[in-house]
Amino acid sequence: MTASDWLILFILSVLWGGAFMFAGIALRELPPFTIVALRVSIAAVILNLIIFLTGRRYSISWKMAGNLLLMGFMNNAIPFSLIVWSQTRITAGQASILNATTPIFTIILAHYLTGDEKITVNRMVGILMGLAGVIVLIGPGVFGKTGFNPLPQLAVLGAGLAYSLSGIFGKRFGKAGMDPILISGGQLIGSSLILLPLALIIDKPWNFPWPSVQPVLAILGLAVFSTALAYILYFRVLKRAGAGNVLLVTMIIPFVAIFLGAAVLGETLHIRELGALLILVAGLLVIDGRVLGRKK
After folding, report:
1. 5 with 41: CB under 8 angstroms?
2. Tell me: the pLDDT tens digits for 33-58?
3. How far apart are CA 25 and CA 29, in angstroms?
4. What are phi and psi of 242, to 5 degrees?
5. Which of 56, 187, 216, 242 lies 20 to 30 Å (CA to CA) from residue 231?
6. Of the given ranges (137-151, 200-214, 237-251), which has the lowest mean pLDDT?
7. Is 68:187 a contact under the CB 8 Å cutoff?
8. CA–centroid distance for 24 within its chain
9. Is the Cβ–Cβ distance between 247 and 83 less than 8 Å?
10. Residue 296 above 90 pLDDT?
11. Where are the beta strands (DSSP E) in 203-283?
12. Terminal Cα distance for the chain, rounded
């Protein structure tokens, strides 16, 4: 990779890691579905404005439009909602660590759902290490601690599972030769159509007072930087550096989220969380294979 590729990878990690911080700020005054609905709808407007101004046009069948709606459901609506809801109960750092399990889910699902991505020895070791990291993070609650409520942690793991399914499902767009920015713009339209009605029905945002400046800026940060700009950079680096190098972003995101959570949200990093993160990152490095010099 070139120096510019590394720079884009780092910026992308900051943008996606910053999403946990932005959500934490927005949650001080706004409910989860409203935050997510505003995030995707504003990002949809921005990306589709770019699509229009650059002369691109949607030329797709009804079937492809349905696929984009489903992609928006799996890749935006479900994971964004689950993660933001979880942050009403756990820290941004904890959510980001659990979200780093996405590549592990992808490997497991791809083994059964695709014909060309089978689990190797390295990958199995990495999966087991990732599972160990999750157990360390959740802690004694896994073993039946009285009063333990695992729903927030399970919600983030569910988000990782949704991301994994969308990644596998999304390959059909690449095979169809569809422009990546059209995929992003289309799925954001789809997720907006799903989330805006849900936010109105569930959150009833008109019952909340008008938010102050900080939550409004946090929503804009989520939409402009952590979604619209992040998608543009993601597909650029994916094309230039490949999927293997994009995996590095997954490893960096929790460190960014933990730092911003401590610096901006006042969160505290516990030894158990740090240990879980290091185990999980080690597992991802084993899955990547380059740390061992080869893939088995």
Report:
1. no
2. 999 999 999 999 999 999 999 999 99
3. 8
4. 90, 160
5. 216
6. 137-151
7. yes
8. 15
9. no
10. no
11. none
12. 23
